[in-house]
Amino acid sequence: MPIVKRQGSVTVLRPDGPLREENLEIIDEDVSPYLNGGVPYVVIDLTDAPLIDGAGLEWILDLDETCCRRGGCVRLCNVGELCQDLLRITAVGASVQQFPDLTAALGSFA
Question: Which domains does the chain have, with CATH numbers?
Answer without folding.
Answer: 3-107 (3.30.750.24)
